[in-house]
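Quick one: superoxide dismutase from Seriola lalandi dorsalis, structure tokens please.
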Amino acid sequence: MERMQGEGEVDHLEKPSPLTDKERVMIQDSWTKVYQNCDDVGVAILVRLFVNFPSSKQYFSQFKYIEEPEELERSAQLRKHAHRVMNAINTLVESLDNSDKVASVLKLVGKAHALRHKVEPVYFKILSGVILEVLGEEFPEVVTAEVAAAWTKLLATVYCSITAVYEEVGWTKISTSTGLSMGREVSVL
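--- reply ---
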């Protein structure tokens, strides 16, 4: 059984320092190679997420009951979501020199996942680890230790930014009778 520390809570990680020019270039150069295989890499990331952290499937009605990795890989809905995830990462990477654009993208992603999809913020941290793992395995010649460190810094920044959006929209954890957690918006009058 998987266990996630702090599930339902918004982490208060210290935001990493901004990317240096060198880190930005390393991320963009490595991403060029990764994005050439965008669909396959996106599917590999989501399949790894769902196999290693099966509770993450609870947010996807179309494939939450699919157990076999091969069947997940063939799912048209999973492929479609993987493509969206990769396109969002692509927009971030292409916009690393435009902090307003990055903030805008992260705000949209954060709000959608908090308010519409009710995804626990811890899954962004988990997904970050899965992304780093898959990129390192699939592109070892490109994702060196130094490049992986730059990606780690970027994904930590993404996680901090998205959890800040969760806080802005009043994310809280409520338990249901099934024991699953759901988020909801809290209005302040």
